[in-house]
Amino acid sequence: MNRKLPSLKSLRVFESVARNKSFRKAADELCVTHSAVSHQIKQLEQELDVFLFQRNGRTISLTKQGEFLYPVINDSFDNIAEAVASLKSANKTKTLTIQTYVTFGTVWLIPKLNDFQAKYPDIRVRISISFVDVDFDKDDVDVGIIMGDKSWSHLDYTYLFDMEIFPVCSPKLVAEGKLKKPEDLAKLDLITVELAPDDWPTWLDKAGVDPHIIDSGPVVDNYLQALEMIYEGKSVVMARESFAKRDLETGRIIRPFDFSVMEVGSWYSVHPKQQNPKPEIQLFNDWLAQKIREDSSFIVKK
User: Which of 42, 120, 125, 238 lies at a C-alpha separation of 20 to 30 Å from 76?
Assistant: First the structure.
């Protein structure tokens, strides 16, 4: 279709003058002179063969013809601006920042991220490793992967999984006959991971052993630090299969007892409640749920 239209420049000037109800304000907005604005309006009026503005001294108002044209031009420029913004946004690399604990991030999540990046190459994932739960008021984070309960009303929780916990140690400790029954744990160093203080008491209580035997044992920040200590064959730590799988499969560590209990709390993906959350969050959560279902070491409740 061959459209006969006035120049885009004159229509832009008309829209600005009509919206601001002022030639001077339009000139300031468009970074041109007052006379340039007047010239464009005069040119447009001549081309359309109508008057668009009624001049009343220092004030102006739209004529009937101007009132007819203005909303059409205004909506058109709004649509153009939205379309341009959408195109620019589509061409930008989207960043998704995820915060999680040291062990889950290092041992399980990070090794699988190549699969997510292959599926969504336009999403740049940034992993933030932390010893504590995410704080959206202070941290520049989109998603947090946490363990606990649904205690914060301002967050959206997506359930991920539960896990069993059990003691692990070096094969040397069992081979030397130092760990034949749960009661023997009282004679050894039981390592507590600071962010999981309920692990040992929960397991020991179910095993019928006094939980206070852990009171004098060492405390570390994370499970990876604890592993370095038990390799020497002098300590025992509570583990989760998904975090210990590689060392269990290679025989570097073993389970001295075939007895597990459920850890206290479930794992969730969380983000702040908002009207229009990043679509990348849902894509990540869907991908994460699929990867979790593929791993038999997790317990996923229906």
Answer: 42
Q: How many CA atoms lie within 13 A of 22 on its CB side?
A: 8
Specify the residue for token string 């499970």: 223
3-state DSSP assignment of residue 142: coil
Question: Regarding the domain with residue range 164-262, which homologous superfamily does it belong to in the CATH classification?
Answer: Periplasmic binding protein-like II (3.40.190.10)
- The tens digit of pLDDT for each residue in 105-154 reads 999 999 999 999 999 998 999 999 988 888 888 888 999 999 999 988 88
The mean per-residue pLDDT over the stretch 241-245 comes to 91
CA–CA gap between residue 50 and residue 46 (Å, rounded)? 7
Contacts of 33 (CB under 8 A, 6+ apart): 27
| pLDDT surpassing 70 at residue 2 | no
Contacts of 103 (CB under 8 A, 6+ apart): 222, 223, 224, 243
Sign of CA dihedral 222, 204, 301, 148: negative
